[in-house]
Amino acid sequence: MLKIWLWVFTVFLLSLSTEALSMQETTSCKLYASAFGGIVELDLNSGEWKRFSEGRKNLLGWDETQRAFYTLDFLPFHLEELAFPLSIIHVNERTTQEIYRLRSDNVALAPDGKTLVYVELIQRVFHLKTLDLTNGNNALTVPIPRIETRFFWSPDSEQIGIGVQQGEDRSRLQFYQLDGDPNITVIELDHPIYADLTYEGHPQWSPNGEQISVQLQTPDGLRIHLVNVETREVTLLRNGRTPRWSHQGDQLAYFDEENLNIYPLETGEQRTFPFEGIALLPSWSPDDRQIAYLEYSIPPKESLLPDKLTVLNLEDGVSRTFSFDDVTFNLEPILWRCD
After folding, report:
1. In this structure, are residues 266 and 276 in contact, taking their beta carbons and an 8 Å threshold?
2. Which of the listed CATH numbers 2.102.10.10, 3.30.230.30, 3.40.50.300, 2.130.10.10 matches domain 104-239?
3. Domain segments of the chain: what residues?
């Protein structure tokens, strides 16, 4: 009997230990968001926030090797060159280094953090260009049609996608190979793609590379579709906006007018989490157990920009909303860093 009780007690202690570790993993995260006047850092453990850097910056992504952020600076804007400074911010030293100047703000960092894609107008023709961040070379330059979305990368960092309108009632997705292969993959769509050069509307590749979520303008309104990359089959999924894949690729988060929705692709048993006002740009935590998103106050502030950041725990449905004095956020994704 004593052995049984010892075993039960040991299992109990292990469960407490596991739960404690789980909570530590969940709460030992920091969020970074581009705000008017600088990048804001929020410590989820303490609930404290601070300005991580000054100036109007677009957060492009995180480089784990260098422990640094890549940012596109909007101020100072080099008017004589019509160029935006591309900078790297080293977290440990808190130093900012300009590494390049781009003549476009439609840019996207590859998932592996090694390549940047951007659009540039050359002799009145749009070109897709890539910048190898390891050596500073332009690896690829190809002419492209006028694009209606931001660039989106395949998860293996080998393909670059764009959305293109085809007249008034059709559109297509086009994919370019980073290695310069001239063959362009084209997937035709029966409805116009949601034309939006902000981060709200751009398509997104699934983590396994098999599907792409895209928003299409149908006669019934804005609808989320899934595109099978191999078969090119297009499937209507849901009414809503801003679909974002979980890191495991088994769920999609998206908004409708009143709810944040979590849609598991395998079961289809959707969960809904209501919010008040206007919410946008959902961002999954690395463990897929939380989602952060931006919100507007009701009525919106004079800046017409979101001024609240909400973090929702998907396991218990509890949300925390943070507002930061007079800080308003740019319409750009929230980045998670969990140590």
Report:
1. no
2. 2.130.10.10
3. 104-239
Residues 6+ apart with CB under 8 A from 98: 73, 85, 86, 87
Give the residue from 305, 302, 196, 211 showing the smallest Cα distance to 263. Answer: 211
Q: What is the pTM of this model?
A: 0.85
The predicted-structure confidence for 202-234, as pLDDT tens digits, reads as follows: 799 999 999 999 999 888 888 999 999 999 999
Q: What tokens appear for 163 in the block?
A: 């959305």
Q: List, for residues 124-173, the tens digit of each pLDDT value.
A: 899 999 999 988 888 889 999 988 888 999 999 999 999 998 888 899 99
- Residues ≥6 apart with Cβ < 8 Å to 327: 35, 36, 37, 40, 307
SS3 track for the chain: CHHHHHHHHHHHHHHHHHHHHHHHHHHCEEEEEEECCEEEEEECCCCCEEEEEECCEEEEEEECCCCEEEEEECCCCECCCCEEEEEEEECCCCEEEEEEEECCCCEEECCCCCEEEEEEEECCEEEEEEEECCCCCEEEEEECCCCCECCEECCCCCEEEEEEEECCCEEEEEEEECCCCCCCEEEEECCCECCECCCCCCCEECCCCCEEEEEEEECCEEEEEEEECCCCCEEEEEECEEEEECCCCCEEEEECCCEEEEEECCCCCCEEEECCCEEEEEEECCCCCEEEEEEECCCCCCCCCCCEEEEEECCCCCEEEEECCCCCECCCCCEEEEC
Distance separating alpha carbons of residues 295 and 129, to the nearest angstrom: 34
**Dihedral angle over CA of 13, 19, 25, 26, nearest 10:** -160
